[in-house]
Specification:
alpha+beta, eight-stranded mixed β-sheet
Length: about 850
């Protein structure tokens, strides 16, 4: 009876499979199935001996352009709707039948494991369809590593339309130790029933047609590859995007024979030039170390190639551009010219024509291709910019053999979408934009709407704001010049809480008419909290803190850093981490879940906040940081020296630095005047010009609370009264320069007698120290000569001496630089050259100083 039962069950299963396959073919418009080789599923899972209908299929997902079939083990295949027709064709073997011949491999700490297989791992979430059957998600865990597979209809990097299958893997280390994790995808390609689908791959200026095994790695990995039913029918094809948009470029890509690669889990060696026959591709993302809680996200796209044109000339590029994309950067159109004749085509030229809304970046509409052999394909690209919104037509014509008649013509259309915010409106106080360009603003932060109406000018402008619940706020905007209008409000203070908020700006004109309302959305978020110095209190807000939003993912049972890639649409803005501004604030709007933030900042301990559940909104997740920086900041000044006399007004430049926490503010106090505070690390003080004794107190405070105080005293004398004797200063400068010269010569002597570099450096270091002491005196001499107003030195000679002291200073600096190079080099020959350079510069400086000294003596100047 048992064997009889098995036979009946087997017959039943065959019937169910056939019925489901037939139903799928009807539902998704597939043609009558072509004759295909039935393949054995590679590396099947070792499941428990139980049966359920749910284990047969995960179900189809997709939209009106792209469909995917997902099995209970997470394996999938896909089909694409033919453009301009109601017919569908397969991209991966053997849609719409059950998947199984393509699979994904994980490499964890050197071990290879097949995604979805038991006992390699276990599903913590079996494949399930979500979002109206447009997405399939599953989570499979092996040890500490949880892998989430997300398959969904997505925006195609090649077209800008939702006609690609987005294939995404989110790999999370849920453990407490580092793990090395890599991923390989193997896809069994099939295009419209052709299981030996050939490929086109872009290269250096040309497109290679490939039906043989070939390997690509590193920088040679192409941005995309295309698979065809056959090369003579480019309309039945698909493009796999491995870079662009948010796609993650693999470290290796290979075109292979399915029968050979399907028997491997990770390692595969191509046989160059061997025909693929039953074709497949492999894509490898090499193992990378994941720290506890860290994620690795891999995203690729498989869908329409975004091409337009006839079979000899095909164009590829984006078909839809957001306003932020087309207004800020150019886009590319790529042409593929195929010589589909039996003879060589010479003098091939490609000429691009575009409507008035498109401009060429390099004004290079005419591309000379040269000779194209029979059956060959060549690639060319143009960089263009859209200048107006709307649908634009781009035409490329191919000319050959000197003919004025086009050999082939291709037409392409690209749509430049209108801006989310009208171009004559700007926002103040917003917190960036979402990924579709929608502005983001805080619920409890002031928001300023600016609008310009110049031609014609408005006599009044009304602002109307409506939140997601329908609560309405209306106010007249203000103007000072009749052109620029402005209004500032805080959404929460006027009852606006629910996102999105819609802003409507309505102008009124002198003839009694009302202009077309300008309307746009704003996404409201909660400023979730602020960061402050725990030792100083909540008013001591900290700018420059890095705030990372973390989410407790119940699917992998661990805290992870939120990202748009891993959790699309779950947070806004999508920037993570955020860096706090002067007010110390940060904020996200997040969907329901458990969250926390991890805050780090130079000079402070990294701190993790308490965990909070949303909803309700959380606006008080304030985090106190404990300082670790106990080093006081340094203060630097120029324009004044302590205990010095001057005959001209003194202007002090005050700056401060701190190598850890950073400067919070500085203050200065001149004599008995009030203390002046500056947020920042530098300032220029008002000039002090009154005759007499003066005192300046400078204070610097860093963000950790460390404080440095410096007091400088000086005297301002009458202009006719020399502030300080110059002869003693120039005498010291001359003596130190001579000492520098003596030490340089001693070093050169050691070099000539082949002594060690260590001994040579002894004299070089002495020379540099003496030269630096001379520099201090030269600088002071320059100040005194610059301020000199006496009559002992003739005016014309004063200018000569001032010029000479500048030259002495320049040569002194040059000597110091050459000495430093001579000291630092390990090459004795280089040290010899640099030391001789220093000797020459020192000699020039000394000559200028001795000339100045002789003049001061001759004119009897002290």
């Amino acid at each position: 009876m048992l064997s009889s039962f098995k036979k009946r069950l087997s017959v039943t299963l065959v019937f169910v499979l056939a019925l489901l396959s037939a139903m799928q073919s009807v539902v998704y418009g597939a043609e009558e199935p072509k004759t295909e080789t039935i393949k054995e599923k590679p590396f099947p899972t070792k499941q428990a001996r139980t049966f359920s209908i749910a284990s047969l299929y995960g179900g189809n997902i997709g939209n009106d352009f792209i469909q995917a079939q997902v099995g209970s083990d997470g394996r999938f295949n896909a089909g694409l709707k033919e453009e301009g027709a109601e017919r569908w064709f397969n991209l991966i073997y053997s849609w719409p039948s059950s998947p199984g011949t393509s699979f994904t491999t994980l490499k964890v700490d050197g071990n290879t494991l097949i995604y979805g297989n038991q006992p390699d791992g276990q599903f913590t979430q079996a494949p399930v369809n979500n979002d109206g059957n447009t997405k399939n998600e599953s989570v499979w865990k092996t040890g500490d590593i949880a892998v989430k597979q997300v398959l969904q209809a997505g925006i195609n990097p090649a077209t800008g339309l939702p006609d690609a299958l987005q294939i995404r893997y989110i790999i999370t280390n849920t453990g407490t130790e580092n793990h090395d994790v890599g991923l390989r995808m193997m896809l069994d390609t099939m295009v419209d029933g052709n299981d030996q689908a050939p490929f086109k791959v872009p290269g250096n200026g040309e497109v290679e047609s490939i039906n043989y095994e070939k390997d690509y790695s590193g920088s040679s990995v192409p941005a995309f590859w295309q698979a065809f039913n056959n090369f003579n029918n480019p309309d039945i094809s698909a493009q796999y995007s491995m870079s662009g948009r948010d796609a993650t470029a693999p470290d290796r890509f290979a075109i292979t024979n399915w029968g050979r690669i399907s028997g491997t889990e990770w390692d595969y060696t191509v046989t160059p030039g061997m025909r693929t026959g039953d074709s497949a591709v492999g894509m490898w993302w090499d193992p990378k170390t994941l720290a506890p809680g860290e994620q690795k996200i891999i995203t690729t796209y498989y869908g329409r190639p975004g091409v337009g044109g006839d079979r000899a000339l095909v164009l590829s590029g984006r078909q839809r551009l957001t306003y932020d994309e087309w207004s800020s950067a150019p886009f590319n159109i790529i042409s593929y010219f195929t010589n589909n004749t039996q003879t060589t085509q010479n003098n091939v030229r490609l000429v691009l024509e575009a409507d008035s809304g498109i401009t060429l970046i390099n004004n290079d509409s005419d591309h000379s291709i040269g000779t194209v052999n029979s059956g060959s394909t060549t690639q060319s690209a143009w960089s263009l910019r859209a200048t107006t919104q709307g649908r634009h037509t781009i035409t490329v014509k191919a000319y050959t053999n000197g003919s004025n008649e086009p050999f082939a013509t291709a037409e392409y259309q690209v749509e430049a979408l209108e801006p989310v915010v009208p171009t004559n409106i700007t926002l103040g106080g917003s917190q960036g934009t979402s990924n579709d360009g929608t502005p983001i603003a805080g619920r409890v932060s002031p928001l300023t709407v600016n609008a310009a109406f110049d031609n014609p000018r408005a006599i009044g402008v009304t602002l109307i704001a409506t939140d997601g619940d329908g609560t309405r706020y209306e106010h007249e905007m203000d103007t000072t010049n009749g052109v620029d209008w402005k209004h500032t409000f805080t959404p929460s203070q006027v009852g606006l809480w629910e996102s999105p908020m819609t802003i409507k700006v309505v102008p009124r004109y002198a003839n009694g008419t009302t202009g077309t309302p300008l309307e746009f959305p704003i996404q409201l978020i909660d400023p979730s909290g602020f960061i402050y110095n725990g030792n100083k209190g909540e008013d001591w807000r900290l700018p420059g803190a890095k705030v990372i939003l973390q989410y407790f993912d119940p699917e992998v049972d661990t805290w992870v850093n939120m990202s748009e890639e891993a959790y699309p649409g779950r947070m806004s803005p999508i920037t993570n981490p955020q860096i706090t501004g002067i007010d110390g604030r940060y904020g996200w709007d997040a969907v329901a879940g458990k969250y926390r933030v991890v805050v780090s900042r130079p000079g402070f301990e990294t701190t993790t906040s308490r965990a909070v559940d949303i909803p309700p909104p959380v606006t008080d997740l304030n985090v106190a940081l404990s300082p670790t920086d106990n080093v006081k900041p340094t203060i630097s000044t120029s324009g004044v020296s302590n205990a010095t006399s001057y005959t001209a007004p003194v202007t002090v430049i005050f700056s401060s630095s701190d190598d850890a926490a950073g400067i919070r503010y500085i203050t200065y106090k001149i004599d008995s005047n009030a203390e002046v505070k500056t947020n920042g690390d530098s300032t220029t003080l008002p000039a002090v010009s009154s005759v007499g004794n003066h005192s300046i107190t400078l204070t610097s405070v860093d963000h950790a609370g460390n404080e440095t105080v410096k007091t400088i005293t000086f005297t301002i004398n009458n202009p006719g009264q020399q502030s300080e004797d110059m002869m003693p200063i120039v005498t010291v400068a001359v003596d130190k320069s001579k000492l520098t010269q003596d030490n340089i010569k001693a070093a050169l002597n050691k070099i000539s007698t082949n002594q060690t570099k260590e001994l040579i450096n002894e004299d070089l270091n002495k020379a540099k120290a003496a030269n630096d002491e001379a520099k201090v005196k030269i600088t002071r001499l320059k100040e005194l000569l610059g301020a000199y107003t006496g009559t002992q030195i003739p005016a014309s000679q004063q200018n000569v001496l001032r010029n000479y002291v500048l030259l002495a200073e320049q040569q002194n600096v040059l000597a110091s630089s050459k000495l430093s190079e001579a000291i630092s080099t390990t090459s004795v020959s280089t040290a010899n050259a640099r030391t001789n350079d220093a000797l020459k510069a020192n000699a020039y400086s000394l000559n200028y100083l001795e000339y100045i000294k002789s003049n001061l003596k001759a004119y009897r100047v002290k």
